[in-house]
Specification:
Chains A, B: It is a multi-pass membrane protein. Chains A, B: Belongs to the Casparian strip membrane proteins (CASP) family. Chains A, B: It holds the Pfam family CASP_dom. Chains A, B: The chain crosses the membrane at residues 9-28, 48-66, 87-106, 142-166. Chains A, B: InterPro entries: CASP/CASPL (IPR006459), CASP_dom (IPR006702). 2 copies of one chain form a homodimer. With 180 residues, chain A is mostly helical. Chain A has one domain (2-77, 85-166). Chain A has 4 helices and 2 strands; from the N terminus they run αββααα. The first copy, chain A, has helices spanning 2-27, 48-76, 85-119, 134-166, and strands spanning 30-35, 38-43. Chain A has a two-stranded antiparallel ribbon. In chain A, helix 1 (2-27) packs antiparallel against helix 2 (48-76), helix 1 runs antiparallel to helix 4 (134-166) and helix 3 (85-119) runs antiparallel to helix 4. Chain A is elongated. Chain A starts with a helix and ends in a 14-residue tail after the last helix. The model of chain A has no long low-confidence stretch (mean pLDDT 86). Chains A and B meet through helix 3 and helix 4 of A and helix 3 and helix 4 of B.
Chain lengths: 180, 180
């Protein structure tokens, strides 16, 4: 399976780039405006959801880098890892799934917070913010778009790791390894 | 694979119950309070995220019911479906994954909106709501908990459908069916 291993590496590298891009765009987003003679600054720290997104996406980038390193090492010592291969595949599969779900959820939470910043909530007297901090909001929108691209890449990666794991098992009996 | 098929049915039935429970708890959640001599009512319609959650979770419940019906039909005509089995498995796998991701994301968006209702956002002058609408907030918290349980069940279901699909494929060559 050389072809799919290469595709996997490309997907992981792109996912790392998009995660880092998202974290940087959110983390470095700030705008200062003078409102009623008082300078007010909007940063990602104003809403917890943005702070969590920065941490989650950075962690996801680091995790994917570690997986890339693991791929380099295991390609070199492939002969020695045959027995432990299935356990490593299980751990990789579960971590990939977890990363995909958590980054997608963190991104959606930040998206909801951004929607509230754009529309406000009249019933609750939460005012709109994006008519004042326009540039801040556009940068945040770009960041969320990158975050969704990264999440979709991560979902594809988790499909491949599911394939690599489950194709070793029998289709007749559940969780019984194939005879080779 | 009789054992795992039964587990799958139990998981889907529980997922349907939890999705319906979530949709009902969110949809029927309302509280009226008198604030400064004016009666104000909080319902799920005040925040878009809650409305979306009701629709998404209802759709997920309907989808799982349809899958349960499909399971009943395909069990009866199993002989006739062998050739089309792999395509049906692919569609089922993709829809299961999609449902798992979307309900998880909708739930997380609603969770973020609820966190804002509990904590408020001082910088943006968004005031807290849960110190006034306490019962409303507790019911919403319970609904979100049910929603997360349903999402985790859906993730397990999508694991099983990934297994059912990918265990039919060769572990040596990508997307090549096993010889049987």
């Amino acid at each position: 399976m050389v072809g799919i291993a290469q595709v996997n590496v490309y997907l992981r590298v792109s996912a790392v780039l998009f995660y880092v891009l998202t974290a940087c765009l959110v983390g470095l987003d700030s705008q200062t405006k003078i409102i009623f003679f008082v300078a007010r600054k909007a940063t990602y720290r104003d809403l917890e959801a943005f702070g969590i997104l920065v941490y989650v996406d950075s962690a996801a980038a680091v995790y994917n880098l570690l997986q890339l390193c693991k791929g380099l090492i295991s390609a070199r010592f492939e002969g020695n890892l045959k027995g432990a291969y299935i356990y490593i595949s299980w751990i990789g599969f579960l971590l990939d799934q977890l990363t995909a779900y958590i980054t997608f959820a963190a991104n959606s939470a930040a998206f909801e917070a951004s929607v509230l910043a754009v529309t406000g909530a009249e019933e609750f007297q939460w005012m709109k913010l994006c008519n004042r901090f326009t540039r801040f909001c556009f940068q945040m929108g770009g960041a969320l778009l990158c975050g969704y691209v990264a999440s979709i890449l991560m979902a594809l990666i988790s499909f491949i790791s599911a394939y690599n794991l489950f194709s070793n098992y029998s289709s007749k009996r559940f969780l019984r390894l194939k005879k080779t």
